[in-house]
Every structure is written in structure tokens, then in C-alpha cells.
Amino acid sequence: MNMKRRVFLKGALASGTVALALGAGIVTPRAVLAAWPKSAFEAKSVADALGALYGSGDAAASGDIEIKAPDIAENGAVVPVSVTAKMSGVESISIFAEGNNSPLTSNWKLGPDAEPYVSTRIKMAKTSNVIAVVQANGKTFQAAKEVKVTIGGCGG
Amino acid sequence: MANTIKMRASLSGDVTTVKALMKHPMETGLRKDKKTGEAIPAHFIQEVVCEHNGKQVMLAEWGGSISQNPYISFMFKGAKAGDTLKLSWTDNKGESDSAEEAIK
């Protein structure tokens, strides 16, 4: 798989309020809800969502991000995805399903004691890349893995 | 109200592994009711927060594309057996729930 893809943001950011709370201190659910990145979750492309989330358009391909997901998912409503980032200083991991209308599924902000690993289950509308974007030491990296989605049927 | 979170936190060396299963419809708002043809309103968890001894370990922001009855797992360092872990979620309707579990 050739991972040489660079994501560039075209033009200005969607909103000026890209306030990234880097998990400092105690945050109540209410305070956090006010910061839910609506524009990122409603963005229709990975590039737009990245711009809304990280305020920067560049996500260099990285071999230090491991995505575990089935090659073929029999049920697109429940696709298990695990992401492990091997670089140091990981601050957050975002998971995208490129073929979804709104590709951003989740953004995981990791405190200083958290290991650079998340595992969850996502919905995938159709066969496409699962893209993991990792922010580490202020830089953004990405990796992708294609997951084929069969809705019933014989697979492939 | 029944607790919607089942979680386990197990310690191995310095690393605590947390696994949790949450009960939630996670409606995207895009599905249509087959009988009425009306869109089923979006109802999904937007935030999940994990705290250890009152300090935030992890904060996850979600959209409707996380699967129904979400499963999550993550790990962190620096806890001791017997420490308390708290996991909370809040959804787009302002509903929330939380659970506490001792680290074993």
C-alpha cells in the first residue's frame, strides 16, 4: 500500500474558533459539550474535518500508526477498529470512515498518562478507507486501511 | 434509572486497560422510520470522559457514526490497584450517565 498522501487544506478554516482543549485539568461534561466540534463532525470530507479539528491542513503519512480493522466487514453498522500510535508525545487520535457522508467518527483526546491506543466500533456506509489521524507534539500524521463492507451477501 | 455503562479496569504492571460497553441507540438522524417515513431524530453520545482520581485521562468526542451500544477500550499509566476510575458520557439531548469502577 502506498501511503504517500498529504492532506492540504484549501483556503481558510471553516470557523475561527478552533480552541483545542488539550485535556488540561478537570472538565465537567457540560463545559466540554460547549466545545463539541460540530463543524468537524459535519464536514463532508476528511480534509475539511481535519481543518476544523486541528487548524492545519497537513497530515503526513506515517508508518508509526497501526490500524487494526477487518479486511472485510460483514456488518457495516459494527466495524471494530483499533488504532495504535507508536510515536512519542501523542495528544489525540481521530478516526475517519472516508466513505461516510460525514467521515469523522470520533476524536480521542489523550491525557499525558494515556497510552496512544484506542479501540471502538464504527459505522461504515460502504467499502472505503478507515483513516487514523494522530496529533503528536503538535504535528499531524495519518495512516489508512481499506475495509470492504458487505451488507449481507457473500463478501468480496 | 438503570446504569448504561459496564466497565472493567485491569492493571498489569503500570498499565491499566479499560474496557467499557455503553447502552445507547446512537441514532445518526439519517435513518427513516419504515412505517411513517419520518427521519428518526439524531440521538447519539457526543462526549465520553474518563477520570482517574479526579484527573482526566481521556476525553472522546463522537458523532453518530460510532456503533450502537458503543464499545471502547483504551489504556493509561500511573494507577494503583484499588484506585477509582470514573467514566461518563453526555449525548446530544443533554442526557448523561456515569459509572465508577475500582481498578483491579
UniProtKB/TrEMBL annotation, chain B:
Gene3D superfamilies: Immunoglobulins (2.60.40.10). It comes from the Bacteria. Residues 7-100 form the Sulphur oxidation protein SoxZ domain. This is Sulfur compound chelating protein SoxZ.
